[in-house]
C-alpha cells in the first residue's frame, strides 16, 4: 500500500471516513450519478488476503485510484465458498460504490452447489469487465518425489487417498483445477479447503499438505525459491515465465485446460453510465505500464472488454464447468 493520499485504503479507514462525512448508504441521486465517483469505492474480494485475487485487485486498484482520484478499498471477505461475500454485495446499494471481484467459482460453480444462497448471479449482479486470465499451475512441495505428470500419477496411484491437496476453498479456481485434473487422470487425492490461497499456501510451504493448484501471482515466488516444484501448467501452451515446465496436455491428457479468471461485477440496477465508466477506466488501467509489467511477469492475459463481452464469457464458463462439478461431485464443504 502506498503512503500518498490517493492510494488504496483499508476498510477501517474507509468506515471512519464515511462516518465523518455523514454519508447515507441509500440510493444515488441523479446529481450524484453524474458526479460519480465522489467518495471511496469498496471492492469486495471473496478470499482471505495473500491469494491471486488480492494480488490482481491491488494492481488494478492502484491504477484506478490514480486515474479516478478516489481510493479503492480492498475488503477481503473469505470463507463460505464466496457466498457470504456475494450476500454482502447483495445488501449494498446499486450505486457503484461497492463492487465485487468475480471469478470462476462465484459465477460458474456456486450456482450449482449453493442453490439456496439467496441470490441469482445472473439476475442480481451485472458484469462490468474481465480483468485478467491467469495460468493455473500445479505444484508440489519440494519433498514430494515427483517431477512431472507421469511421475505424479504413478506416485499417487501407489498411495491412493494418502495425499492431500489444498485450495482457497470450495469452488475456488484451484479446487476446480485439481478436480479437473483428478477426473482426467483418475488420481485419488483428498481436498483440504481453506479460507483463501494465502492460508492454503502456508500449509503447502510448510510441507503439511503435498499439492495445490493456484495462479502464477501467488505461486511463482515460491517456485523460484525452490520450496515448491511446478510439475505442469493448465495452459494449452508453455508459458514464458516457466518455459521448461510442460503443460498437462503434454503429459498425455488431451484437451486439458484450466485457467483462472478475475473480473468485476456490480449490483443489478447500477446505472449503466456508472458501469460503462468503470469498464472504460479498467480498460485504461490494464494498459498501464505497471499492470502490463505485472501481467508479463506472471504470464497473465489482460482483459478490459465490454460488459457484454464479459457476460458472454461468464455464460460460456458456466456451461463448461457444469460437467466437472457433476462428475467431480463438488459440494459445499
Task: Write a compact overview of the structure shown.
The protein is 42% helix and 19% strand.
Keywords:
42% helix; 2 domains; D-Maltodextrin-Binding Protein, domain 2; alpha/beta; disordered N terminus; 10 strands; globular
Task: Characterise this structure.
By secondary structure, this protein is α/β, with parallel strands linked by helices. The protein has 2 domains: 11-134 and 260-327, Bordetella uptake gene, domain 1 (D-Maltodextrin-Binding Protein, domain 2), CATH 3.40.190; 135-251, D-Maltodextrin-Binding Protein, domain 2, CATH 3.40.190.10. Helix content is 42%, strand content 19%. The chain has 12 helices and 10 strands. The protein has helices at residues 11-21, 30-35, 52-68, 83-91, 104-113, 149-157, 173-185, 197-205, 216-225, 272-285, 289-298, 307-327; strands spanning 41-45, 72-76, 98-103, 125-141, 164-167, 190-193, 211-215, 228-233, 259-267, 301-302. Strands 1, 2, 3, 4, 5, 6, 7, 8, 9 and 10 form a 10-stranded mixed β-sheet that branches. β5 (164-167), α7 and β6 form a beta-alpha-beta unit. α5 crosses α12. The longest helix has 21 residues, at 307-327. The radius of gyration is 20 Å and the shape is globular. The two termini are 33 Å apart. Residues 1-8 and 16-32 have low confidence and may be disordered.
